[in-house]
Amino acid sequence: AQLLPEEEDDLWHAYNLIAVGDSLQAVTVRKVLRDSASGGRDAERVKLKLEIVVESVDYDKEGNVLRVRGKNITENDHVKIGQFHTLELELKRPFVLRKEYWDWLALDTIQQACDPTASADLAVILMQEGLAHLFLIGRSITATRSRVETSIPRKHGPAIAGYESALKKFFEHVLQALLKHIDFEVVQCVVIASPGFTKDQFRDYMHLEAARRDLRVIIENKSRIILAHAPSGYKHSLKEVLDTPGVMSLIKDTKAAQEVQALKEFFTMLTNDSARACYGPKHVEVAHERLAIQTLLMTDTLFRNTDIASRRKYVNLVESVKKYGGTVHIFSSMHVSGDQLAQLTGIAAILRFPLPDLEDIEM
Amino acid sequence: VPKTDNQSDLEGPHRNAGPWLCSICSQQNDTSCMSCEVCGVLRDLSLYFNNTNEPEGGAKRRNKHSGVSVLARSLFTPSSPKSKAIVFSDGFRGNKNATGHMQASLGTLHKTFMTHKQRHNIVPFKFDIPSPDDMVSIGLKSSRHLRKADTSVPCVDIPGKMVMGDDDLVAEKDTSTDPSSSVKLDELGGNSSSVAANTRNETLILDNELQHLSLERKPKNSKAKIKKPVPVSQYKPEPWMLQGEDQEMPRQLNLAIVGHVDSGKSTLCGRLLHALGRISKKQMHKNEKEAKEKGKGSFAYAWAMDESADERARGITMNVGVAYFDTKNYQVVMLDSPGHKDFVPNMISGVTQADAAVLVVDASLGSFESGMGVNGVGQTKEHSQLIRSFGVENLIVAVNKMDSVEYSAERFNYVKSQLGIFLRSCGYKESAITWVPLSAMENENLVTAASDTRLSSWFHGTCLLEAIDSSAAPHRDVSKPLRLPICDVISSHVLGQVAVCGKVVCGAIRSDSKVLVMPSGELATVKIIERDSSRLSSARAGDNIAIGLQGIDPIHVMSGGVLCHPDYPVSVASSLELKILVLDITVPILPGLQFELHAHHAKVSASLVRIVSLLDQKTGKASARKPRMLTARQAAVVEVRLEREVCVEEFGTLKALGRAFLRSQGSTVAVGVVTRVVQRELELQ
What we know:
The complex is a heterodimer.
Chain A (H helix, E strand, L loop, with lengths): L1 E2 L4 H10 L5 E13 L5 E20 L4 E8 L11 E6 L5 E4 L5 H11 L7 E7 L2 E7 L4 E8 L10 H22 L7 E6 L3 H16 L2 H5 L4 E5 L8 H6 L1 H6 L4 H18 L4 E3 L1 H9 L3 E7 L8 H16 L3 E5 L4 H8 L3 E5 L12
Parallel strand pairs in A: 7-10, 10-11, 13-14
Antiparallel strand pairs in A: 1-6, 2-3, 2-6, 3-4, 4-5, 7-8, 8-9, 12-15, 13-15
Chain B lengths: L19 E2 L6 E2 L15 H8 L6 H8 L1 H9 L4 H15 L7 H18 L12 H18 L9 H18 L1 H12 L1 H30 L17 H4 L8 E9 L5 H11 L5 H13 L15 H6 L6 E6 L3 E7 L7 H8 L4 E7 L4 H5 L7 H11 L5 E6 L8 H18 L6 E5 L15 H4 L7 H6 L13 E3 L2 E5 L3 E8 L4 E3 L3 E5 L3 E10 L2 E3 L1 E3 L3 E7 L11 E3 L7 E11 L11 E6 L2 E14 L19 E13 L11 E6 L2 E13 L6
Parallel strand pairs in B: 3-5, 3-6, 6-7, 7-8
Antiparallel strand pairs in B: 1-2, 4-5, 9-18, 10-11, 11-17, 12-16, 13-14, 13-18, 14-15, 14-17, 19-22, 19-24, 20-21, 20-23, 21-22, 23-24
Helix pairs in contact in B: 3-4, 3-7, 5-8, 5-9, 6-9, 7-8
């Protein structure tokens, strides 16, 4: 299939798509050494089209580059067959991916990536006094764009003035980060979330500064900036922010929202009837053997397994769960909820009926 | 040897400016370096090598002279007293590498030297009382170890015999030059075996001082900022720390005021301060007027504590407020905590220092119930659990707003029975809880006994102030190395650019001493110590102080850090093993849970890596099976990974720095203690 990554998310999908053993064709630049007539050697950069058999894939979150290493299989003047080469896949650069076998997951991934309506870009500023994070939430990745941390003194008699100025400075840093990283043409809306009143204080500060400095972007997009409550300013609180009704309605149909919902369901089930929820590959497998799985939660890291056999195993598991009428949620490990699931062995399930004896099976 | 107390002479003698040449490898060294950058030889070695007038001979000959003989010679050759002292130490240092059994002879030598020195009135070394023998042996071991690590003085193997010979030489020289000391030496020689232990003690002490000397200077020529940690058990309190312990000074009591939102904590504090004359009439009048203008007349007293504009506008406390007042027995530091759910983190970081606590409960109908968490978790419950896990044993329950229930004894008893059950389940002893009905608004039963007949008719207990005054004296750990968790970083014109606030958890601190700021590992000098805006020269465990620091960049000082003794750094962890008690939670705890971990003033994002074992509530034994999850009221051992490094101690070592609080989704899910610290790798050069 020929693919063209258009946004960050697409690269992430490509990362999930490309597996060891696939062959990948793309345009690349390679430094070629050539013996010149005079006996010296010239180094020349040649642009050429190469096809390689993938041996390893690396995703660079910051640089938005996918690095794929493998052995060359196309014949040409400059690179011998079997020579190693690393292809860099970037945005707007087409590539061709060949697989021996396209499983449904791969096809699904492509379908998802091609569906433009599912895209919802949301920016969240998660803050507490002295600490702020700026996240951009795409369909399947959450990127931490900026982190602001300053030390703010607690009130202390005469030092109260120091508190005010320290807070001002902190807000200024956050505002700068906001202006730098948030492009209102891409981002649908901005959520400012914090415990207590920090969010209100910041919003007031932002509007005041916007009016004073004539920051058009903020004034024009005033309506797209909303407030939400968060229990803390740390990254993992993002889950709760996405769960607040105001934000939920904005991102209702996105993957991030579905993931948060599914994980929440899992935890609710665990709370109410702990025998109807399980986690860990062993337990899930046992539950599946008894056809008890209603909802299966998995992270995409499991599919990215280098070992083809285990990938096959998980794919088969998902397929058979679906066959028996269960639902499957594949979490993106780039989202907070997926991150949490990944730490919870990466696989969990809500069951149709209680299986209390799971407790007794060693994990 | 008479006891002397002149420890500040640790500062080395001043030297000539300009680079100096290493006597061993002829490396040009900077003036600020105490020892050669290449070979680590101490600078002053040159002093006595020059003395011997020896050409670049073999190491053997040098060995001979660098030992005791050199020492002896330099002792009695006329030179400035100060440099003499340092030469002595250097010679001594070289010698230390020799075998152990010569310690005793060295000890005698010391004695002579000391007596000699005292006559000159230079006392660069401080003496302590002889310590127990086991301390000696530990000390000896470590000191020898240290020598190996930081010196390459070319006299590693002087045979014991030779030294003994040299020692004889000293004796001879002594007799020739200084009869009085030789008498002493003879005397010592006579019963050397019996005094051996004693003299060894002194060598050790001297040695310790040398260790200080070398350790303090090390950072200047090497990049290693954090030294090899010395076991805390080896620590000996310096005499100044213990001084004044017996003085009849009013002790400090850190009193936390906690309770549910709007139970009247700040108003209670304001009332207390006002009644004790800590708020001027003018200030009070101003507050009253401003509060009225805002239509919040009842907040006038609370505004004494809530100073920031935001707090006043919203009528709630957001940050921990600090105020001071004196009672008969104590200097009380009052910590007024925020009651609102969102500010529990602030409350935790601000109130961990508490020795005692006042739990304020709203007696009025409905308010008490919401504090107890009829719907959701009430902060009356959460706070009292937290306070208990801070290590506070004595609790004063102030049943506030009694005026709103007509000072009904029935209501008071209802509150008492309801809350009493819960408090006992938290681990408070019945006898440790004092119940005080009061009304902060109407000033009933605060500083004087109740005047309203409706209250005084049935209540005959103590008023709040008396209850505070009679709380048990907190235990202070002065004899441990210094630990001061940084609560706040401020800068003011009095304290200077970088100043920190906090409570000395153990040990003592005084101005002009050096402290290590962890986790950055930077050294700083204490310039000013202040308590309640009055200057102090030193502060001991339990004191809540503000310290002005010098010689450190503000970016290295963060709240949540710890000031500690330079030689005994606090452990820094990025991964911990905790023994936790799960509180009343609805969602069970699973591995992978992400939460905020609070430990003293530090807060950090963390995640649960695995549940090691489940503990039986009654027996405390670990269950064999790995549990799938943790539910309410279970105790377990868990492993957590921290996002960033945090200074903590194992609970067994230091309780105050070994407590941790786990918060997730806006409520405290578990409290625990640190059972094992997985230390980060020390960057030893």
